[in-house]
Specification:
The two termini are 60 Å apart. The chain contains nine helices and seven strands. It has 384 residues and is an alpha+beta fold.
Length: 384
């Protein structure tokens, strides 16, 4: 019952409470009125009048006898009418109370409807304003309701201005984020390019001649990273969209050998086994480039890669001997702009995770900072 009352509209709550108050007061008032009427009518009775009049019936005057009999009859009729009068008055009082009660309820309902309708309209307008819709609010009431309507109009105008400002700021913030991500992604291919150029420069400084085959190898490495840069620039044109991988059968060992050769002067990579996965070769190269670059910047000198084929999946484990990450901070590495190294952007691993998820793969990281056994272990699970 209480729950039903709470769910009622405000006007029905007021009417129901008003009805209960009227009923609570009307019955006691009716009872008081009827009791007062009974007391008044009973006071009009004279029980000694009839014996007194009968005592005069022995008179020999016929006119007096007839007058006494008429008085006796009238007295009896009055005493018989008293209960009828009380009953009729009670019925009339109940009827008047019902008519008055219904009239007051109808008047209350009409008045409350007139009062609550503008409030309901304002509530609906507030809901639409909250959803970002522009509504037309009529300003035609007076008093407190008129002030409320005026405040709602002012609030809507202010919200429109705030939304426009927030939209502009959001666009600026989004483009700043895009610029950070793209700067980080473009920086990754530049690392192996710079390393390759440094090796060429070292050879030239030592006076060693570069054979055609060696020069071709260096050029191919640089060319591969230039192609990666070209892909990144093309992706920048539609960066707001999630990456749309073009998945084909890809050899994991071939992808890993490609990046390990580019970083061979600084990171020693060992590889066990091979497997074919359904993935986007270009996106995989970006993933491995991020991982190898992170290991290099973390002070690693060796990376061990193991590929394991299970019944329903292929597990790729990449373990380095870098400085490692404290275990309590492992879960935070996937949060954009969270970094634990000087000069880092905090975008590499979040980008890696996003790219792998777009190809249906799952990534997990473990780390150790012990003196004897330190480094990061990355586990990537591909579906068969």
């Amino acid at each position: 019952m209480i729950k039903l009352f709470k769910n009622l509209e405000i006007e029905w709550k007021i009417i129901l409470l008003a009805a209960l108050v009227l009923i609570a007061f009307s019955f006691p008032l009716q009872s008081i009125y009827i009791n007062k009427l009974k007391a008044t009518l009973n006071q009009s009775r004279d029980y000694e009048l009839e014996p007194l009049l009968r005592s005069f019936l022995s008179t020999h005057n016929d006119i007096q006898k007839r007058a006494i009999r008429i008085s006796l009859e009238r007295n009896r009729q009055w005493q018989a009418l008293i209960p009828i009068i009380i009953e009729e008055q009670s019925f009339a009082l109940i009827l008047i109370s019902i008519i008055l009660f219904i009239s007051l309820l109808l008047l209350s309902f009409w008045s409350l409807k007139r009062l609550t309708k503008p409030l309901k309209d304002l509530a609906t307008a507030a809901d639409n304003i909250g959803k970002g819709n522009n509504v037309s609010i009529k300003f035609n009431a007076g008093g407190a309701l008129g002030k409320l309507e005026k405040s709602m109009i002012t609030m809507q105008d202010e919200l429109i201005k705030l939304r426009e400002r927030a939209h502009t700021q959001g666009m600026e913030s989004a483009w700043r984020d895009i610029a950070r991500v793209m700067a980080h992604e473009i920086k990754n291919p530049l690392t192996p390019i710079q390393l390759t150029l440094d090796r060429i420069q070292d050879r030239l400084d030592c006076g060693s001649d570069l054979s055609k085959q060696e020069m071709l190898k260096f050029v191919n490495r640089i060319s591969a990273q230039v192609i990666t840069l070209e892909h990144l620039v093309n992706d920048f044109k539609s960066f707001a969209k999630e990456p749309e991988p073009v998945c084909t059968p890809v050899s994991l060992s071939e992808c890993i050998k490609s990046i390990s050769m580019d970083m061979s002067g600084f990171l020693e990579t060992t590889l066990d086994h091979d497997a074919i996965v359904i993935a986007d070769c270009h996106l995989l190269n970006r993933v491995f480039l991020n991982i190898w670059k992170n290991s290099y910047e973390a002070g690693a000198t060796k990376i061990s890669v193991t590929i394991e084929q299970l019944n329903s999946s292929i597990i790729l484990r990449i373990v380095d001997n870098g400085s490692g990450i404290p275990p309590e901070l492992i879960e935070r590495v996937w949060i954009p702009y969270t970094t634990f190294k000087k000069g880092g952007t905090g975008l590499g691993l979040p980008v890696v995770k996003r790219l792998l998820e777009s190809m249906g793969a799952v990534i997990e990281m473990k780390s150790s900072i012990n003196k004897e056994n330190h480094g990061v272990s990355i586990i990537i699970k591909f579906s068969k």
